[in-house]
Amino acid sequence: MNEFTIGIVVALVAVGALWLWFKSRSKKTVKEVRIFSSIEQLKAIGQLSVYKVLTKEIVTETDHTWGEIGTRYLSWVLSGKKMAMIFEFEIDFRYNLQSPRFEIQEKGMNAYTISMPPCDYEVNIRDIRFYDEQGSKLLPWLLPDLLNGFISGGFSEEDKNKLVDAAKRHARNQALELINNIQSEVQKSAKSTLESISRAFGATHLDFEFSSLHAENVEVEVSEKIAS
Fold first, then answer.
1. Range of the domain at 3
2. Sign of CA dihedral 116, 122, 123, 124
3. CB 190 within 8 A of CB 48
């Protein structure tokens, strides 16, 4: 092999080594930027639903949460007509990742601290029905002849709205008790969900800071079958 050939081989080896070095440096830089950028993209997700509870309650007598209107109408239906009320509502636990209180801080190589905003709760009454023990059948909510036969002058639209409000009040009290009892489970679910998303981007260590606030009030929505 002459000197010219040897020079070419040496040059090619040098170029190859230099190309491999730049490639490895390029991969490392792109990887670091991509991970941090992807973690920051969590803020664009919006509402993150992490937990849902569906509860079904069998009511055989009213309590104070139903108020006067519940005592006036429902007590008679439940005791006089020997019926039970099946009360269904759901709670959706969500975090607003677009909240300014949602923060992501880089703590080191692929390590982040995520500060979570307070949890939002959405309560919805799905259905209310009566169970006729004597006829062994389910009856719809606010069956007209069920109440009109008891109330002189009929059951007015105002009466119906008052009963719906009483149902919302009952659901609100029940939901608040449940919400404050399962905070740890909700946070555990949120942590698990965000860990799965973040680790897919390459994050290897995540710390979470949750805002543990005692829920004192929630808004309650009702399904169309109840409101109509």
1. 1-42
2. negative
3. yes
Verify that 35 and 138 share a domain, yes or no: no
Nearest partner of 171 among 50, 83, 54, judged by Cα: 54
Q: Do 27 and 80 fall into the same domain?
A: no
Domain count of the fold of the chain: 2
As beta bridge partners, residue 131 has 84, 138
Q: What is the CA radius of gyration of the chain?
A: 30
pTM of the model: 0.72
pLDDT at 109 over 90: no
pLDDT at 32 > cutoff 90: no
Who has greater pLDDT, 59 or 81?
59
Three-state SS string over the chain comes to CCHHHHHHHHHHHHHHHHHHHHHHHHHHHHHHHHHHHHHHHHHHCCEEEEEEEEEEEEECCCCHHHHHHHHHHHHHHHHHCCEEEEEEEEEEEEEECCCCCCEEEEEECCEEEEECCCCEEEEEEEEEEEEECCCCEEEECCCHHHHHCCCCCCCCHHHHHHHHHHHHHHHHHHHHHHHHHCHHHHHHHHHHHHHHHHHHCCCCEEEEECCCCCCCCCCEEECHHHHC
pLDDT band of 52, cuts 50, 70, 90: very high
**Are 197 and 161 contained in the same domain?**
yes
Residues 49 and 31 in one domain: no
Q: Are residues 139 and 121 in the same domain?
A: yes
Between 211 and 26, whose confidence is greater?
211
Task: State how far the Cα of 180 lies from the Cα of 135, in Å rounded to an integer.
Answer: 39
